[in-house]
Amino acid sequence: MKKTTIAMLALLALPAVSFAKSISVTDISLQGAENKIMKIADNHDAEYTITGASSGNFVRMTAVLHNIQDVSGLGRKN
Hints:
The protein is an alpha+beta fold. It has a domain at 18-68. It is 33% helix and 36% strand. The protein has a three-stranded antiparallel β-sheet, with helices on one face. The longest helix is centred in the middle third of the chain and has 14 residues, at 30-43. It is elongated and about 60 Å long. The model has no long low-confidence stretch (mean pLDDT 81).
């Protein structure tokens, strides 16, 4: 009985679980890179936190998407 109750509580908690995904973009400017991240976050109904940026001939920016509602399309593109 105790195992069944624990299993039921675990199943009830599943919809409350949120997903997080790291992403990386490149652009010629900081603003352009952040705009790309913002667009990806908006497309997936997510919030984002920028975790790093580096520049040289181009800008590479990384971020973590939080509270992702739509995880489709976030896989690696070959």
